[in-house]
Design a protein that fits this description.
Radius of gyration: 16 Å
Helix content: 40-55%
Distance between the termini: 49 Å
CATH topology: Rossmann fold
Number of domains: 1
Shape: globular
CATH class: Alpha Beta
Number of helices: 6
Number of strands: 6
Structural class: alpha/beta
CATH architecture: 3-Layer(aba) Sandwich
CATH superfamily: Response regulator
């Protein structure tokens, strides 16, 4: 039997947490060990419960998801992070990648994407919402166009 993946989940909307809990725990290999409604509580719960994965909303009171991730990286706490967010802006996505966030899932994604992201990052892999693939392709195309227009400048 596979070892269960322990998860701390943080989102400031109780209904989101409740729905996620039901869907995530329908998979017998996943268990939510704690949940928080703000970033400060999430940070404390992550340190206490030592999960394999933290599923964090970006927009939360006290500390946002980025602040929680920065604090965890600063202390070198061994937890993988999935951002579950409504933000598809390239700047936020890039900031998450720069922080070493391995999972970035949009809230309008299918629940199967959330479950897949948790499993992927727990195994050291990355997972991005399929909707973000167009963002990455457009970014790559822009970089290639810039390189053609101005070789060596980028």
């Amino acid at each position: 039997m596979e070892t269960r993946i322990k998860i701390v989940m943080a989102d400031d909307h109780p209904i989101v947490r409740q729905g996620l809990r039901q869907m995530i725990e329908a998979d017998k290999n996943l268990v939510i060990v704690a949940e928080a409604g703000d970033g400060q509580t999430a940070l404390a719960l992550i340190e206490t419960h030592q999960p394999d994965v933290a599923v964090l909303d970006i927009d939360m009171p006290e500390l946002d998801g980025f602040a929680v991730a920065r604090e965890l990286r600063k202390t070198k706490f061994p937890v993988e992070i999935v951002f579950l967010t409504m933000h598809s802006e390239e700047e936020l996505f890039q900031a998450a990648m720069d922080l070493g966030i391995k999972g970035y899932v949009l809230k309008d994604s299918a629940i199967t994407d959330v479950v897949a992201s948790i499993k992927a990052v727990a195994r050291g892999r990355s997972f991005l919402s399929p909707a973000l693939s167009s963002l990455l392709l457009n970014r790559r195309r822009r970089a290639e166009e810039l390189e053609r227009e101005q070789p060596g400048l980028h």
